[in-house]
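Thread: Newbie trying to understand structure tokens

Hi all, I'm a second-year student working on a class project, and my supervisor (Dr. K.) asked me to get a predicted structure for one chain before our next meeting. I've only ever worked with sequences, so writing a 3D structure as a token string is new to me. If someone could post the tokens and maybe explain what I'm looking at, I'd be very grateful. Here's the chain:
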Amino acid sequence: MKTREIIFWILVLISLAIAGWYLFGNSPTFEQTILVLILTITFGIGTKVAMIGEKINLIEKRFNFLANDFKKHINKK
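---
Reply by user tm_fold:
Sure, no problem. This is what the structure looks like when written as tokens:
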């Protein structure tokens, strides 16, 4: 597991704990509970976007290598 996945799961557990705390009383306000939930979701989305960006860069590099191979093959004829 990567550190961002560990942080995400810790945030999920904190969000669930605060949501449960809100449901059973003597808790933070509704807005604070929603804020923690929104922060967790935002962090999750951010990590997914970063992972997608890394994959796109890798695909772009592979495509460039493939294009160079085709150019070399065409020039040999």
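A couple of things are worth pointing out once you decode it. The chain has two helices and no strands. The chain has one domain: 3-76. Feel free to ask follow-ups in this thread.
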